[in-house]
Amino acid sequence: MSLLIASLIVLLLTGAAALFTNSRPSMANRIGPFGCVLGGAMGIVPTIMVFFGSPALSFKANWNIPYGNFFIELDALTALFLLIIFFFSILLAFYGSGYLKPYLKTRSIGTSWFFFNILIVSMALVVLARNAMLFLIAWEIMALSSFFLVTFEDEKESVRRAGWIYLVATHIGTALLLLLFIYLGKEDGAMDFDRFKVPVGMANMLFILAVLGFGSKAGFMPLHVWLPEAHPAAPSHVSALMSGVMIKTGIYGFLRIVTMLGGPPQWWGIVLIIIGVTSGIGGILFALAQHDSKRLLALSSVENIGIIALGIGLGLLGQSLNSPVMTFAGYGGALLHVLNHAVFKGLLFLGAGVVFSATGTREIDELGGLMKRMPAVGTTFLIGATAISGLPPLNGFVSEFLIYLSAFSGLTSWNAAAVPALITILGLALIGGLASACFAKIFGVMFLGTRRQKYDSTHEHPVGFMMKLPMYVLAALCVAGGILGPWMMKSMESALAVLTKLPMQTIGDYVSTPLLYVAGVNITLLAVIGLLAILRKRLLRTKTIGTAVTWDCGYAYPTSRMQYTASSFTQPLCGSFQFFLRTKNHHHEASGTAVFATETRDWFLDGIFKRMFLWFDHRLSFFRRIQHGRIQLYILYIVITLLALVLWKMRLP
Amino acid sequence: MILGEIKARINQGYRTIKFPDVEPDLPERFRGMPKMNCKNFDCKKCKEACPTGAISIAGAARDTGATQGAGTIRQLKLDMGRCIFCTDCVLACPEKAISFTRDYGLSANDRDDLILKNGQVFEPANALKKETLRIFGRSLKLRQVSAGGCNACEMDTQVLSTVVFDLERFGIQFVASPRHADGLLITGPVTESMRLALEKTYEAVPNPKIVIAVGACAISGGLYAGHDEVAKSGATEIFPVDLYIPGCPPHPITILDGLLRLIGKRWSHA
After folding, report:
1. What confidence tier does A122 reach under pLDDT thresholds 50, 70, 90?
2. Rounded Cα–Cα distance for residues A46 and A50 (Å)
3. In which element (H, E) is residue B185 found?
4. pTM of the full structure
5. Domains parsed from chain B with CATH numbers
6. pLDDT, averaged across chain A
7. CB count, 10 Å around CB of B68?
8. Sign of CA dihedral A225, A228, A233, A235
9. Residue A555 touches chain B, beta carbons under 8 Å
10. Per-residue pLDDT for B73 more than 80?
């Protein structure tokens, strides 16, 4: 435990040191990442030990804040999430130091690293905290530090807007959590998690509060609106951290609270399955229609959170129906997908960041042919894209397989689970197909074909090894995750035991045999791919290999504009979902060249939230009379309040 | 709907001709291999009548002047690569020395083989060389390019894919992309507008590749030879051609015969 606390202190101190060396950016760009690597390495040691079955560690210290207790605990569930946090702290430190290099002269690098380190500490505290005050404070610091990271390029109007939407969304969530914790602590008058009690008859309401409060962080549709705004605006290593890791704290918080609420009724699971299917299909459809690489990836995070929600929903349903296979496979799939999504989404965001660094654009329709220019980055990106589409033999397939397994076990008997399980299977199949199309699009348009137009060369920066190394590591993990499925599941047994409160031995038996088959299939597939590659090389050894232009039907003036664009590639699919996507077509003629473009805006944001807030703004304008910015008046309010309080206190016996 | 189609199909019966095992049923007006039996080489009426300049007379008085060597062979030549089978020469000849037979085997491997000489035997096309034949003998995929053609040759080529000729039973198929093709089948005189497209298509066919020129235009420019906007002598000028199939247009049987000779499935006059 002391090593863990020391690691948090190291992260804090180096963050502060980076802030103080702000005037010497290259120094700050070394201190910040150094702290992340050192702190991450120190913290990951006890985390791994607990993750692989050591007894839980806890630490309690008195704190002056009312109801506050510095009560942290490292159990297996926490360890799973903490493992991701510390692992990414180390990886992204390498990447971030390379990514920020071009900004050394123009931006305050020290501040950025300060908030980055703070964000890691706060995320670690969120998953460690066993006291509501500590949890909420860490939660709030996490929200604020990531807000400042998002607004890195704050001179851009779009970035400020994104930051603003994020800030509002996260605080709505926090407000609901506050309510949730107050209810839970009311009974015993204490805010420690182990003393929480569910007031009689309140479990359902608390469940809804948890879904909304944590769901706004995790990105459940329709609370996802901040994700596609904030993630593209942030620097890429921050996007990777936010999309791969931070939104998972929402999942963590939800799981942690749900275990306190007692045995779940069936409809809890059904609610989560509906949320999962909506987020999954909605998220990937919006992603399919995007042309901004990082916005696409952010919306695909909504989809993956949907898949995780499906797993949790099946787990809850299994618990309420006393079906252990459904429970373990559902929760297991969800937890494994948390891990896997962090790996491949991190990889993809880092890839998009490398491309942005190298070309200065995130608009995928301006790219093309990058496979020739950066084959290593292209290959790792392809691995990430295959993994996120849930295709064998990579890690995404294993976790989605578990969720399928859970759903199919629900189908075997005609009970309350049959219909939700069927919905899950159909939904997950549709999500998988659309995800494949979506990632075929982003990989094909960015990396294949030929260069579309001259990039603005002033934005071009060389991509150093420091930035590529984390991508290689993550790509290797994608492959390893496909093979090591059964062993991953085995090491997660203790985390599952925390969730389901059932003995560990039984957990493995239900899912280990099917997972062994999956691993066998994956290994065979990898071997076949390898053999085919060797065979191809051997067959081509004696042949001359020529290169020629793409067949253009003999056209006299082919240009790179004639390639498939992001819009045209997905037009048939997006067209059939037009009722949901509401894509607008723009075309205009500029100097003899006709330009066609599609635009798919998030109508949840424009249509629902904007209207809702405008309505509130209109209704609540009355309060402007007492809130109009005169400081004297505010002091008067405070004085009146104090007086009232004093009088009230004096009147009491 | 589909039942109706099946019924129609049954009613139609088996339509594929037995060629090459059975001789084809050629139309009455079919014009095949020209035959010349000229004795009066100074007449030149046929040469003057020919619209494409396919007929020439070697050692004619005007060509060699007054000094005719004793060794000079005076003979009438008819270039099938230019001939449009119009029969103007037949009508012009006062001695009826030129006629068109019903021999449909007109294809040749060499451009010079197409030039028929008075009284000499025509040398029909041979199969590909052993190594190339090993690759293409059982499966030959062709990309057709109409390089400014009038669509007559194209129609007679296309008809080979129908049930009547059923080209695919010989392993020959027309494909959409040159990337999938083993060779080009060129029709038309190669206009300037189509020249680049044709060259690009040729480039796009992977090696080893073959070229087949079908029709008088593709072989020599035909009626359009000498025009500013077409290649000087059709596709022959641009690529090495492996098979010439003369005609204007050649009958589908002529084309099929040429293709079969090329892949070694037919080797003598039937």
Report:
1. very high
2. 6
3. strand B183-187
4. 0.83
5. 34-103 (3.30.70.3270), 130-262 (3.40.50.12280)
6. 86
7. 13
8. positive
9. yes
10. no
